[in-house]
Write a structure and sequence with these properties.
Distance between the termini: 68 Å
Order of helices and strands: EHEHEHEHHEEEHHEEEEHEEEEE
Number of helices: 8
CATH architecture of the largest domain: Sandwich
Number of domains: 2
Structural class: alpha+beta
Strand content: 25-35%
């Protein structure tokens, strides 16, 4: 006499999470750089797990290998994805966005670097997992404008002049190297009020300033449409003005400071007696003694949620 045993039904596949209704995501590639500032060792596997929850016909994660970054990026782009997701440092994300341009696929530059200026502006969070889910479920196409300075693209802001010399000191503090921070800070103080910039806005008259900042429509508080870059010329006459300007930057809108003048521009020419210190989207660099910055009305296409309705926390 045989015994009959009840067989538990096979577990059903979990229902796929709903994708954004605003775009078609048939093929998705995600680039992960495990060596980036805020990318943990298990990020690639975590990303595969998240992507597998959605009904994407063709989704792959490409983990960049040391010395072969270009190969990994090329592999992802050769698939001609509808969406290229980037979990890497600010420089890598910016370079890819600049090279793809507005004619290329949509990109989603998630917060994987140190400063994360562009990801914060697009996603309002430094949690890449949260940003990824919100983008896949509610993302919309956004045409991102930006600027370019001597072949280097920027999508948030660039500052030129002596105040940019404080960037190395800030980075040293972030890394806990107080001695190096002191050395950089002392050097910045020595040059704080020397070597003024000469600048022209859209071919206008030549003026002088301590520093010139260019702010893109993505983060500007006063520009609602992509007409150009917001140029802010800062001209403190001495230490008292500089400290007042710093206070405005921390606690108020610095545009209200009498030492600051602003204007919407499409082209800025900068000149100095020596190489111009700059910070471009958080990255310090040195320009030649003469440099030209210009507005890029359509730099690339991003897939990002509407921050007013997506529930992402700043």
């Amino acid at each position: 006499m045989s015994e009959t045993f009840a067989v538990d039904p096979a577990p059903s596949e979990p229902e796929a999470r709903e994708l954004t209704p605003h775009v078609t995501l048939g093929r998705v590639r995600m680039i992960v750089n495990p060596a980036s500032g805020s990318v943990d060792a298990g990020a690639a596997e975590a990303a595969r797990g998240i992507l597998s929850e959605y009904a994407i016909a063709d989704a792959e994660v490409v983990e960049l290998q040391p010395g072969a970054f270009s190969d990994g990026i090329s592999t992802a782009l050769e698939a001609r994805p509808d969406l290229l997701i980037i979990l890497a440092g600010d420089g890598t994300a910016g370079t890819i966005a600049s090279s793809i341009g507005d004619d290329g696929p949509m990109i989603a530059p998630l917060p994987g670097g140190t400063m994360n200026m562009l990801p914060k502006a697009l996603y309002g969070t430094t949690d890449w997992r949260k940003a990824l889910r919100e983008t896949l479920e509610t993302g919309e196409i956004r045409h991102i404008s930006g600027g370019e300075i001597e072949g280097r693209a920027f999508f948030c802001a660039a500052i030129f002049g002596a105040p940019a010399l404080w960037a190395p000191a800030r980075e040293a503090v972030r890394e806990g190297d107080w001695r190096l921070a002191w050395l950089h800070g002392r050097r910045a103080l020595r040059r704080a009020f020397g070597g003024r910039l000469r600048y022209q806005l859209d071919g206008g008259p030549v003026r002088r300033a301590e520093a010139v900042a260019l702010i893109t429509p993505l983060i500007s508080k006063v520009m609602d449409v992509d007409k150009g870059l917001e140029a802010a010329a800062m001209s403190p006459s001495g230490a008292a003005d500089a400290f007042r300007l710093a206070a405005h930057a921390l606690f108020d809108d610095w545009r209200h400071d009498p030492a600051v003048t602003t204007q919407t521009v499409r082209k800025v020419t900068l000149r100095a007696r020596s190489r111009i210190p700059a910070v471009v989207d958080g990255e310090p660099l040195r320009l030649d003694a003469e440099a030209i910055a210009s507005f890029r009305p359509r730099a690339f296409k991003a897939l990002a949620p509407n921050l007013d309705h997506a529930g992402i926390e700043a």
